[in-house]
Specification:
This protein has 77 residues and is mostly beta strands. Helix content is 0%, strand content 45%.
Length: 77
């Protein structure tokens, strides 16, 4: 299975706030989720995600951001 090495993840601002969204780059950890999907992480924010068919599932902390059910992920070359 050939997965992209990095993804850019767009994190929206807090609900009800007017803060702009921010972009975090996550890298493949070499790990796979229980479902067999690749796991990506950002060492600076602690964000850990599982990405499969363009869908992103948050696995690790996003301090103060609350739960996210849908994050936009774009492969980075």
């Amino acid at each position: 299975m050939n997965n992209p090495w990095r993804y850019a993840i767009t994190l929206p601002g807090p609900p009800g706030g007017h803060a702009p969204s921010r972009v975090v780059t996550v890298e493949f950890t070499g790990e796979h989720s229980a479902d067999g999907n690749p796991v990506y992480a950002d060492v600076h924010t602690g964000l850990r995600v599982e990405i499969h068919d363009g869908a992103t599932k948050v696995l690790g902390p996003l301090s103060g951001a609350g739960p996210r059910t849908c994050l936009h992920a774009v492969p980075v070359s």
